[in-house]
Task: structure prediction
Amino acid sequence: MSVCPACNSLAAINKNCPLCGCPMYDAGAIQDFYDNYSAFLEQEIYEDGYRSYSHDFCVHLFACPNCHFDINIKFRRLNKSLLF
Ligand SMILES: [Zn+2]
Ligand SMILES: [Zn+2]
Result:
C-alpha cells in the first residue's frame, strides 16, 4: 500500500505562484476530480499518463487564490510500511 504524502498531510508543501508570488494552496488530488468518469474509463485514462497520474505518482492541483493560475504537481507515493 503506497500513499501520497500530500494527501495524507505527511508533507508541508509551500509553493508560490510563478505569476504573482502568492502562496498557492493544494486544491486536491486531480483523480478526485475525475471520480465520476473513473468507474467507466478507469485505467485507460489514468494509465495513459492522463495529466501524469499513475500508481507511482499522485498529482495535485495547486491553485493561486490571487490570480487563479493553477499547476499540477506530482508526488511520488511512499510505501506506507516504511512510514508507519
Ligand atoms: Zn495526493
Ligand atoms: Zn498568482
Remarks:
- Residues 2-83 form one domain.
- The longest strand covers residues 57-63.
- The chain has one domain: 2-83.
- Residues 35-47 form the longest helix (13 residues).
